[in-house]
Design a protein that fits this description.
Layout (H helix, E strand, L loop, with lengths): L6 E5 L4 H12 L3 E6 L2 H13 L3 E6 L5 H15 L4 E4 L15 H29 L2 E6 L12 H21 L4 E8 L5 H4 L4 H10 L9 H12 L10 E4 L7
Parallel strand pairs: 1-2, 1-4, 2-3, 4-5, 5-6, 6-7
Helix pairs in contact: 1-2, 1-8, 3-4, 4-5
Bound molecules: nicotinamide-adenine-dinucleotide.
Length: 250
């Protein structure tokens, strides 16, 4: 129960990595606000947490909307009294096009979800954390914050930008007891991977990127996020923690 009575917000909590962290924080005693655009799956995740004895709520949100994001932070504080930990995690992948073939619509959408929304969540969370004297943010960046693969320019650009946001904000708020770090997963088996338009062709290539000889599992990222959010990581500020089977070390 290492997060007993802590208030935790997870964006992108309806599926994949975010659903994993929401459940794990709840198991560890936290009061968890799940936020996602996928309402049906979000309510399922909430029911699973509650039936396991956890305390949680679900807030439907499009993270790209500043109005929604402010409302989410306000509702979290109204419901649970404060905001201790944020897993700023919602994200989308791209369509696997080379740079010149990316449409303006696709580019704008990826920038809105993977970059602007990450900043919005940081902005309103940090405002609340400053009022209450501290807090912890863990952004979900990516191995693609540190390296690249062809066919993913907007995704790679936004994930590099999340690294920049993480490091910059960490230098700004560390002295005010706000720790800000990012987790950088390699390829993890989630809906995002399964939705890849040419998964059969891509999977062996993706496998070959990981010296561990396999792709990652959701719990392996969850463990890193929980540790970064814990007091055990008390001197971690602005780090980009890779959980990538050695991809970016190779
Ligand atoms: N799966 C991987 O291989 C991998 C690797 C590195 C980084 N990541 C990152 O991990 C994070 C989680 O991805 P995942 O793999 O769990 O994917 P996922 O698709 O399983 O989960 C993403 C969640 O974000 C939600 N979401 C998307 N757009 C939203 C919006 N506008 N408003 C609110 N919610 C929205 C989705 O509904 C979904 O529940 C993302 O930031 C992703 O870029 C994933």
């Amino acid at each position: 129960m290492q997060f007993k009575d802590k208030v935790v917000l997870v964006t992108g909590a309806s599926g994949g990595i975010g659903a994993g962290t929401a459940k794990a924080f709840a198991r560890e005693g936290a009061k968890v606000m799940l936020a996602d655009i996928n309402v049906e799956q979000g309510k399922q995740r909430l029911a699973e947490i509650e039936s396991a004895g956890g305390e949680a709520a679900f807030f439907p949100i499009d993270v790209t909307s500043a109005e929604h994001m402010q409302a989410l932070i306000n509702e979290t504080v109204r419901r649970f009294g404060r905001l201790d930990i944020v897993h700023n995690n919602a994200g989308i992948s791209g369509g696997n096009h080379f740079t010149a073939d990316v449409t303006e619509t696709e580019f704008d959408q990826i920038v809105a979800v993977n970059l602007k929304a990450v900043w919005l969540c940081m902005k309103y969370s940090i405002e609340q954390m400053l009022k209450q004297g501290g807090g912890v943010l863990v952004n979900t960046a990516s191995a693609l914050s540190l390296t690249t693969i062809p066919g993913s320019a907007p995704y790679v650009a936004t994930k590099h930008a999340v690294a920049g946001l993480t490091k910059t904000a960490a230098t700004e708020y560390g002295a005010q007891n706000i720790r800000i770090n990012a987790v950088c997963p390699g390829v993890i088996r989630t809906a995002m991977l399964n939705s890849h338009p040419r998964l059969d062709e891509m999977e062996p290539k993706l496998l070959a990127l990981h010296p561990a000889g396999r792709l990652g599992e959701i719990d392996e990222v969850v463990n890193a996020v929980l540790w970064l959010a814990s007091d055990g990581a008390s001197f971690m500020h602005g780090s980009l923690m890779t959980v990538d089977g050695g991809w970016t070390a190779a």
